[in-house]
């Protein structure tokens, strides 16, 4: 039996073949998934990972697609677009509430809902695109004041590559800056219980507004982009090469690339670490632009930039 028929046998008609992915990625690049499946429940996830493991089929997990750049016209194997949604109060005390939140819930919805209910924990994530699952995988954050999505997690339910489900406490995830253990284990975050502190709604709203205003002033908005493309350089590198800033955007700006465009991909005029898709950008144009950034920064500063986005 060929791969398509194997997948159809286990996953049914929800399995799609040669699916255009541009609308699932905030960069909107033209690319296709060879096979596409949207798990909406734990059962869907178990079925999918079990057949993938049994027949050794390549796969990629996506959430809101806001931290992913695809550098090829076709993604081989199965793209699993997580759509597992949950929102349930587990326990309520005088000053806090424990809530189960699904990994497929959009962060925008979680931020709005928790502020409205007077629950503190996610208010600084106003404007963070994507899903809870992607945010836990990346331990996404707001830096001023520093607030990580993983901060309020009590326990998380995950599924491993063989399709086995387990519950782990917060410590397991080893959260740090832009890091959770899931990046090494490749386990999928299914849902988690978060402890959110009760707080004045007006004040939560003010915090969120402050973040939103700052984003509007400093980042491109209303355009197709994948967020910061490269990681800022380390303190060690900054010292070694005697550079005035650790910001990747600063280095890209200083080599004169702000506003430079190849095909439909353009380095943002607002923030040089953002790449915008101003038309119908394809993988080959993005690859050319990324190569250009890497080689110019390497030539002038001797620094090898590393990706912040996940590249497929
Ligand atoms: C305009 C803009 C602003 C941004 N601002 C910020 C910011 O302020 N702070 C910040 O930290 N980031 C920011 N980002 C980056 C990005 O939005 C975050 O990293 C986001 O949390 C990614 O979530 P996602 O669901 O879109 O993940 P995706 O992009 O879909 O996936 C990212 C990675 O997570 C993995 N993944 C997704 N879901 C799961 C899951 N359930 N279990 C395991 N792995 C999973 C994927 O395999 C992939 O490797 C920004 C991006 C954009 C476009």
UniProtKB/TrEMBL annotation:
Name its cellular compartments. Cytoplasm
Function text: Cell wall formation.
Organism, scientific name: Candidatus Roizmanbacteria bacterium CG11_big_fil_rev_8_21_14_0_20_36_8
InterPro entries in alphabetical order: FAD-bd_PCMH, FAD-bd_PCMH-like_sf, FAD-bd_PCMH_sub1, FAD-bd_PCMH_sub2, MurB, MurB_C, MurB_C_sf, Oxid_FAD_bind_N
Presence of keyword Transmembrane helix: no
Q: Which gene encodes it?
A: murB
Give GO terms for biological process: cell division; cell wall organization; peptidoglycan biosynthetic process; regulation of cell shape
Required co-factor(s) are: FAD
Q: Write down the chemical reaction(s) this protein catalyses.
A: UDP-N-acetyl-alpha-D-muramate + NADP(+) = UDP-N-acetyl-3-O-(1-carboxyvinyl)-alpha-D-glucosamine + NADPH + H(+)
Any one GO cellular component localisation term in the record: cytosol
Q: What is this protein called?
A: UDP-N-acetylenolpyruvoylglucosamine reductase
| EC class (word) | oxidoreductase
Give the highest taxon in the source lineage.
Bacteria
Gene Ontology molecular function: any one: FAD binding
Give the residue range of the signal peptide: none
């Amino acid at each position: 039996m060929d791969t398509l028929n194997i997948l159809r046998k286990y996953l049914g008609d929800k399995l799609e073949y040669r699916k255009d992915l541009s609308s699932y990625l905030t960069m909107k690049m033209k690319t296709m998934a060879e096979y596409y499946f949207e798990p909406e429940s734990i059962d869907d996830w178990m079925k999918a990972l079990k057949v993938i493991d049994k027949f050794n089929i390549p796969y990629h997990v996506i959430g809101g697609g806001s931290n992913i750049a695809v550098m090829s016209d076709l993604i081989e194997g199965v793209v699993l677009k997580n759509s597992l949604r949950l929102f349930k109060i587990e326990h309520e005390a005088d000053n806090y509430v424990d809530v189960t939140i699904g990994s497929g819930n959009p962060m925008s919805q979680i931020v709005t809902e928790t502020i409205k209910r007077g629950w503190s924990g996610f208010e600084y994530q106003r404007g963070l695109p994507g899903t809870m699952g992607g945010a836990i995988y990346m331990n996404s954050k707001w830096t001023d004041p520093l607030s990580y999505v993983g901060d309020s997690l009590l326990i998380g339910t995950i599924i491993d590559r063989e399709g086995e489900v387990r519950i782990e406490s917060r410590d397991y995830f080893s959260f740090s800056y832009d890091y959770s253990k899931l990046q090494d284990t490749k386990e999928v975050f299914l849902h988690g219980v978060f402890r959110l502190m009760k707080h004045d709604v007006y004040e939560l709203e003010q915090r969120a507004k402050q973040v939103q205003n700052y984003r509007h002033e400093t980042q491109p908005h209303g355009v197709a982009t994948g967020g910061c493309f490269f990681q800022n350089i380390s303190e060690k590198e900054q010292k070694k090469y005697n550079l005035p800033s650790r910001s990747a955007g600063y280095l890209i700006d200083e080599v004169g690339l702000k506003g430079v465009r190849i095909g439909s991909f353009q380095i943002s005029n607002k923030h040089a670490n953002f790449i915008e898709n101003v038309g119908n950008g394809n993988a080959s144009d993005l690859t050319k632009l990324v190569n250009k950034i890497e080689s110019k920064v390497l030539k002038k500063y001797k620094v090898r930039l590393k990706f912040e986005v996940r590249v497929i």
